[in-house]
Structures
1.
Amino acid sequence: MDHSGHGMDMHDMDLPPFTLGRGLEFSFDAFFLIGSLVGLGLYLWGVVRLRKRGDAWPVGRTVAFTAGVLSVALVMCTKLNDYGMVMFSVHMVQHMVISMLSPILLLLGAPVTLALRALPPAGRGRKGPRELLLMLLHSRYMRIITHPAFTIPMFIASLYALYFTPLFDFLMETKPGHIGMMVHFLAVGLVFFWPIMGVDPGPHRPGYVMRMLELFAGMPFHAFFGIALMMASEPLIGTYRNPPASLGIDPLLDQQWGGGIAWAFSEIPSVLVLIALMYQWYHSEQRAAKRADRAAERDGDRELEAYNAYLASLRARGQ
């Protein structure tokens, strides 16, 4: 079922009652299907290019990035996308996956690092894709949009300023508006988690404790948002007030389910990111310890050589 018309037209269509099986059926969405295929294709091109050159690229990163792309396709190129136009609970699954799970998986794939290693330098005095990417990474614009003073308020505003104002209903009226909203969710998730994950190079590289504080600064607002929806005594969002009769759902109950999903989902990324951070922290400590050991070994050899030279000088004077 294609929803290439206006979002509100979905209310006139007879969708059968939602089941997971129906929700996971393929539903063509040109923008996200082509975007997913292009993103995955470029990533795999980079991996193959490195391998041909004899450079290693961790399999885990490729798996994580592929899972991230598939998670976007799962919620945008299936009938979850159709049901999400008329059921708030299904829309909230889409929102949570594309703004919190997909970005984490994509970032664990280290696509920026891969691009910098795979793209060839353009040559002296010229600017190719690699040079443009480096310019973007070091730009003032990137410093602003990845700074916690920007990312945390934007992460919170994507919930409260969108759902509790007429903006959401306006965007849901057209397909471009709906696509733009979903792209916004993905982009906000990427810039929020990018400095926290710390896998790819970026303008901000806070310490591990600071990253954890940034992570936990945003998450409670998701929980409060979910609870507000669960506690509401009437449907709050116009788009979902009058679902098609064929669905056989109560809009208030559907909203409560959506609130529960938002509340529960706020914990999942926190745990995933925390595990990744602890893993990185442990390995950085291990690397620091090895560097210190190597330095100590080198210094020890130097001290031994100096002592031997001192003994030799004493013997020379004694002769």
2.
Amino acid sequence: MPTYYKYTQLYNFARQVFQKIGCSDEHAEQAADVLISADLRGIDSHGMARLAGYVKQWEIKRLNPTPNIKIVHETPSTAVIDGDAGLGLVVAPTAMQIAIEKAQKVGTGWVAIKNSGHFGIAGYHAMMPLSYDMVGMTMTNASSLVTPTFSLDKLLGTNPIAVAVPTEKYPPFVADLATSAVAYGKMQILQRQGKEAPLGLVQNEQGQPSHNPHEPKIGGALLPLGSDRVHSSHKGYALGAIVDILSGVLPGANYGPWVPPFATAGNTSERTPPVGEGTGHFVGAMRIDAFRPAQDFKQSMDHWISTFKEAKAVDGKEVLIPGEPERNAHIERLITGIPVLPAVVESLEKLAQQFDLEWLENNKAQATSM
């Protein structure tokens, strides 16, 4: 059974851990905010469950806690950023802010990033432009856990894409999805729970369907979105390839099987020599009024959403708008707390001991099991 914690408790703990590894107060706060936003939105695979992984990256000297994040090439509407091996949780928001500033001046802004690390949930960064009446887009490549269609070799990451679109009266449209059949973090949740994976998510070393969520660590792999050729895995493969090219090849980051693995992906070894620098991201912001009046557009988005919400649904189901489940989880978890699985609690307790921090279990009045 999970233990429930208040958002502020987990945020403060994560912030202190990032400070302990050498991050500035500003960077620690930014990193903790991105991390906890995943838990709040119900994406438990990318929240506190990843904190120990970031610390591991720091321990093996793959993470620079005090990066000099800088623009190395730019035009009025584009830029390339060198993240200096910093936390992707910090580098990506910095890049998106640059994209927003460029969009404010010339209508759109696009920033490619190299030499970064795992940046948390893509949706966090894509939503940053919303308050400026802009569409936000974010993508990142990741360590190779996914096989292209018909391949036995793992050549792509889960390579997520996120797009956020502002509205008038409805909550914004936020699509945040992996281009693999499932995010690897979901496999890690199944691993912690001792459960099998549904067929169509992973294959074994021989390329056969498997129920074992540990497959990516023992010679098998995650499958592309679509699972197999009959169910359009070639489309998931193509989407993952697009992300890899824009995030990796374009800025000069590593790509394909050369993308450095995150510490929780089962190993920490890198393919050498590298073909680029670190992990890569690609972010963009588009000012609505560069196309049409923002108010008119947002009213049209409201009509678009209401049309889909009013669609006839199969019995017992509801047509949902992308971002709606995550938003509902956010509202609920601010009230009930964030559930943390026992294995994750154990990893956080170890971090508390490692950095001489007070773990939340020391205050039973603020942490309750449900």
3.
Amino acid sequence: MDSTRAVTRVVAEFATTWLDGPRPSVCVGLSGGADSLALTATAVGAGLDVTALVVDHGLQKGSAGVAARAAETARGLGADARVLEVRVGTRGGLEAAARDARYAALDAAREGRPVLLAHTADDQAETVLLGLARGSGARSIAGMRAWKAPWGRPLLQVRRMQTLAVCTELGLAMHHDPHNRDPRFTRVRLRAEVIPLLDDVLRGGVVDALVRTADGLQDDNDALDGWADAVWEKAGTPAGLEIAPLHDLPRAVRTRVIRRWLIDIGATEPTHRVIGAVDRLVVGPAAGSAQVAIGGDPGVRTVVERVGETLTVRLTKR
């Protein structure tokens, strides 16, 4: 039972650090796979009041049965359990659409409680590699955070082999999702091909190194975000974003202020390209005709433009 005790300690330490009360009430996102079963079991073992939320995406034949068995297993471990049926759309591809549907269902069902998710160190390594390949900056390469309310990830320092060991020690029947072996999905190929190759070439330790990279970048991001927040207090006005407080800032801070403003005016997770284009309005010559499209609805486009020493936003017809 060595793995079970070790992972239970990790979950208990997470709860002490991030959650309130001697027996916090939490939800756990449970798929029936090894990672989420291990998290459910060790969260109960750590003394948390656990409700397992099992999302049935309806994407595979027999998914309702898989969800029902996962819920029953959770109850056998001492947790409450609910099955959440969702409809998966098509926006952004199957993987992204399923993720969006899952998070929306978990958020709607949590009833004010935090939701613990079973992402492991291996998942974090994959996330860092994906961010690196996209070239989307330090925020993306920093990966997933252990805590970003209401989402908690206690297992980010735990390897997948440990969650498998927990399930073996406790005699838990794991569901093996065929999507996790489908090479159509980028994450599957990273897991099955890229990371093993990197481990071979670099003589091991790749997952741990990528996790350390994420942790270090999160600390850097926190420091830069704090600086940007202080500038935002001066630069953000009802009329727009004042440019003068942005003069002489390092680009890393300036672009964070711009990102904060774009989100404030309704942009949804602005891309590296959009933030860079708006930044060029700030550092370039004052030209009222220059503008950057940041989104919009059919028939209407939302654009940012520089008017004198202020960035403003307006709607235009397409």
